[in-house]
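Suppose a classmate hands you a notebook page containing two proteins, each written out with its sequence and a corresponding row of C-alpha cells. How would you begin to make sense of it? This section walks through that situation. The first entry is reproduced here exactly as it would appear on such a page.
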Amino acid sequence: MQNTVDWFNKAVIYHIFIDRFNGCKTNINTLDFLGGNLKGVISKLDYIQNLGINVMWLSPFYKTTHYHGYHITDFKSIDPRFGSKSELLELIYEAKKRGLRIIADFVPNHCSDQHPFFKDALKNKDSKYKDWFIFKKWPNKYLCFLDGKELPKLNLDNRETRNYIIDVADYWLSMGIDGFRIDHAIGPSHDFFREFRRAIKNKYPNAVLIGEVWAEGIKNKYFETIVVKNKILRKIFGISQEKIQLEYYNELDGVLDFELNNIIVECVKRGGNLLSDKRLKYKIKRHFNRIPSDYFMVAFLDNHDMDRFLRHCNGNIQILMDAFKLLFSLNCPVVIYYGTENCFFNNQPVDGSKKYSDLFARKPFDWDNINQEFVESFRNQIKITRDM
C-alpha cells in the first residue's frame, strides 16, 4: 500500500504525558491527578517549538478514572481534569500556527470497568453491550487487558463495537488530530486493523497510524487476551520482538521500534560506545535491512512504561547525547519523552512485576530547574538533523 504520510519521515516527536507535563511541582510518587492539562500544554508550545520538535504525541485525554488516561469511561469526551473540547481545538490551532502536528494516544483494545457500557453489560444479561465484551462466564469472568480486571477487553469482532471504535477515531481526526499512537496493538485482531486502516485512510489519507507492538512481559497466561500469529509456537519459543513488529506491515503505517531500543540499551549496559561500536552498528544495519522502505520504525530511548534512558547510562549525560546523535542519524522518526531532553533520571527502577513502579518514570516536569546547556545541545542536534 502506498504510503500517504511522507510528512512523518522527518518527524521529531515530543511525547507529552499530560497530567505530569505541567502539573504540580512535586517528586512524590502518587496516583493522584497532579493538575497537568491541555492549557498547560498550550502554555509550553513555544518551548516545544524552540526545541525543533515538529510533532507532539499526547497521552490519552479522554474521560477517565486514572491520571494517565488509559482507563477510559467515555471515548468521545475530554476529561474535565484535562480540559475541554474548546481547549483541545485551541491547542490544535496554536500548534498548527507553529508548524506542529499532533498525534493522540488511541486505546481500541479496552476500557475502564467504570465505563457505562461495561456496567450495563454486568448488571443486565440481556444488555446490548454484553457482546461488546468477551465474557467467558457472565458476569464475573471476562477477558481484559492482560490481567487487569479493571480494564475489560472490547470485543472488536462484534460489528457494533468495531463500528463504534472506528467512529471514535473519526471523531477526533475530524477536529484536526494528525494521527494516532495505538496503545497495546497486539490486543485487537489483524482483521480489525485492516478494516480500521481502510476506513481511516479513505477519509484521512494523511493521518498516521503507529502501533505500540510490544511483546515484553507477555507470559503464556496472557495469550488468551492478545491476538498474535502462531500462538502455539510462540508459547513454546517466545515472541520475537522484531518479527512481531513486522507483522503489522500494510495494517499500520509503522510501529514504535522496541527492537531498536533493546539493541541500544544492550550496548550501553555492556559499556559499548554508541557512536563507534562495531557490534552495535552491525545489529542496527541487520535490523533495518529487514524493514520495508515504506514502513516506519519509530525510534525512541525511553517512554512512560520503562526506565528513563539516563538510568541505563548511570547518569552519564554524554552517553545520552550520543544516543540522540545515533537516533537522529538513522533517518527515521524519533520520539523524545518529555523531560529526557532535560536529563530526567529515575533513582528507582521501573519493574513490571511491581505495581505502580512506572510512577518513577512519570515524575512532573520541573520547569524551575532546566539544564540549559544540555537542552541547547539537544536543540542543535535536532537542527542539524532537520537541515540535512
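The notebook's second entry, a different protein, reads as follows.
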Amino acid sequence: MDEQLELEKARKYCAYEERCQQQVRDKLYDWELHQKEVEQIIAQLITEGFINEERFAKAFARGKFRIKKWGHLKIKHELKKHRITDYCIKSGLQEIDEKEYIKTLKELSEKKSKLIKEKHPLKKKYKLMTFLVGKGFESDLVRDVVEKMIKE
C-alpha cells in the first residue's frame, strides 16, 4: 500500500512541472525509498507518460532561452547535468529558432554594452564578450556580433 501512495505522490510531483528521470529519482531517494522501489516507480511513471526525457529537454531549452536568455552551450551543459541523452539534448536545442537566437544575442549585447562603463574599446569589447560567452552563446557568434557593434 505504501508503494501506491509513493507512486501517487510521484505522479503529483511530475504533474506539477516537467521533470526528468534524475530529478524524480533524487526526489524518491529524498523520500527514503530503496533502489528497487525507486526504479519501479520511475518505470511506471515513464509508462504512464509522466516522465519523458525528450519532452523535458524541449521544455527546458525553450524556458531557459526565453526567460533567462541562455545560449545553446549553457543549456546543453545544464541538460547534461540532468543526465539527459545527447539525442534529447539535440532535440531540445532544435526548439530554439535560429533567427530568434541571433536576435536575442544582439539585444543582450546592446543592453549589456550600455551598462559597461569602460571607455577603452578593447576592454569594453572583452567585458561584453566575456558576459555573452558566460550566458552560453558560442564564441564565434559572440565575436561576430560584438565586432559589428563596437568599432575600435
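A careful reader of the second entry would note: The CA atoms of residues 74 and 134 lie 8 Å apart.
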